[in-house]
Description:
The structure is a single chain. The chain contains 30 helices and 20 strands. By secondary structure, the protein is of the alpha+beta class. Among the domains are: 2-142, BirA Bifunctional Protein, domain 2, CATH 3.30.930.30; 170-255, no CATH class; 259-348, no CATH class; 562-752, no CATH class. The strands form six sheets. A five-stranded antiparallel sheet has the order 1-3-5-4-2, sandwiched between helices. It is flat. Mean pLDDT is 84; it is low at 151-162 and 732-764.
Amino acid sequence: MIARILYRNNVQGVMNYVLGKADSTILGFQNTYSDTDTNTAFFGRVLYYLGNRHDSERRYVHATINLPRGEHLEDIDFFELSKAYMEHMGYGEQPYMVVRHHDTKHEHVHIVSTTIREDCLQINLSNDFKRNVATQKYLEKQFGLSLSPETLKDRELPIYRIPQFKNEDINGVRFYIQDITNNMLQKYKVRSFKELSEILRPHHIQVRTMDHNGRIGVSFGIEVEDGYRSRFINGSTVHPQLSGPKLQKVFERNKRSKLLPMVQKRLEKQIMTTFKLFENIHYENLLDVLKSYQNLDCELLYDNEMQPSDIIIYDKSGFICSTSEIGSEIDVVNHPQINNSEDGETSIDVDSNQFVLEIQKLIKNAFYKSYLDANKGKMMLSEFVIIKSFKDLLPFLASSEQYSFLNHYMPENNGSTLLISVQKEFESMRMMLGIKESKKELKTLENRVSILKKVLEANVFDISGSQTTLFHLLQGLGLKYSNGSISYSNSNIHSVKMFLDNYHIPNENEAYISFGCINQNEKVLEVLMEEKGCKALDLSATAFFLPMLLPQLYSSMTLDYGKRFEEHSLKAYLHKTERLHLPYEKSASDYIKLFNAKGFNFKQIEDDICISSIYSKHGVSIPLALKTQAYLKSIKNLDQVLNEQSKTLSNIMDEGRGQLKNLWLSYLIEKELYGKVAFMMIYDKLRPNLDKDVMEYHLEKGLREWLLQVSKQKLNSQQATILRRSAFAFSSLLGGSHYKEEEVFNGFKDELTDYSKRNGIYLS
């Protein structure tokens, strides 16, 4: 099912639309004088009266619940579904009406209500669209309906040869236009009706605009067989958000975007770089070159004489830009390097500086990839670069997409020219990369030693409490100490002079410290030392688990710094984890319930609602964001909800699940790293701290199969040790939203990869 919720500042139009359909049925009313026989005119006056007690633009609510085609609910069940939906969304005590329409092939109902309560206050609308998704998922299971998609998919839209619509099938036309246009406006940041018309044309949708005294009206039509065109439908009829004025607002917002000039500048640089690499580019290869080399999706435009006139770029940012608006130097028609002759071949300029840069980049990436496949714990990258020969790197070079692309467009496409060019640059690039990485490693070492000095001067840790505390402090930074010098734990190539007194190496040390743990620990110490440019929000959620990976170190942290660490790490964990809860958070009560299941407690301190955890050594609590506090304060029986938390928390402690390992297991489950989770649950006998609905979801998604698979395996002690280390190794990548790879750590991805996502739904 699909549930949608919209807000209006006027109720009359909604009432006219909902009740104006000839083929409709009123399923019932709630919180009026009769659940079945309320007069609709009276009901409209009630909503109007309540809505006008507040000046909000979101005074009235219009929700729809749509079933997939082929699914059916009886009127009484659909009414119960609607009541459950309104209850979860916070409208259980508001007057509302449920009307069923029969004008489409999928069954659906409309619900009309108001966001203004009798006390003149507005219902808290925080996270309403996200709670709407969580509510719909919950009700799908409760009423046995088909599950909706988990995420907004960037799906390929249907491009029909000719859409098949009968003349009288006006709703089919309307929903086809709505679906295609909605998806296009999600995918692209359209800036004009002309752009909109162009991207809809492949789907046989035509756009017509009319100027009514400065107010632009828009209508849509569809081309069908034999030159017939469906009658044009007003944009507001297709969907309220597709009216001319509302589309104009979208266009204006996209035109004013601060991102647009940067996108255009980047595109200009990408295209000019392409021209620097190639000696000739044939029109037939131009789009492939831009796609393969710069990852640009382009379309070639032709004039009336069928000669190329311009290039349209569909950028990954969502903007649609033509080369003519990007820069004056990019003239597709007259550019000397672009040709349309039959004997003109696309070829790389092997004498250009850009070609040399591409060869160097190819070699550098091969070194990076081979280093990631090697045992990084034995040497630094600069050492690795020096000892590797051209023959060692050849498999990594030849298997890269970059090598295939360059080889394809070499003037002599036999591979030997490119291989010779790579071999020619190899030694100089190896030396250059080795020197560069060596300088970077030395600077990092010096920074860590600087942090170490500040930490020791500030007495962040109680060095006198244990003889090995100093050792664990260096270990947590990936360092070691010997003969008055500090160096990396896996190399002696760099060292910094510093004398440490009372430094002792423990007799036994089986701790496994991953690179991600070191990086996160370094960030924590920078935050505690208030290093310039380092903010607490830069911490990943994994900072919360450092006492689990470095127990000897964090147990020796002094009181004041221990409290500050717990505050910062709790903020980081809260900030990242709130997003993981969104698919299950139907209401403000669920916000509390989901955190309770993980061992977190909420309490009211004066006027603030604060959060704390059972894992805190110092009993630290921090206030929630003001918006989140307002969201939780909207709970009618908040005091009762807060009092009932103790039951959940007591169960966690009584069952022996009050350790960070249990929460770490829960975090891995939410990140869908099921292989690691299954090992920890089967061999280490750990149990997660998760809400039962969340746990059931992940069991169905694949965790159950992993548990069965691992339970059948027989591991020797060496395999178990390796898996255990992997399970407790973490990096800042785990704080991302889509990281699902079963790997311990990839330092270069941390530095070179930009994880971003497009979110939001245009039509709701």
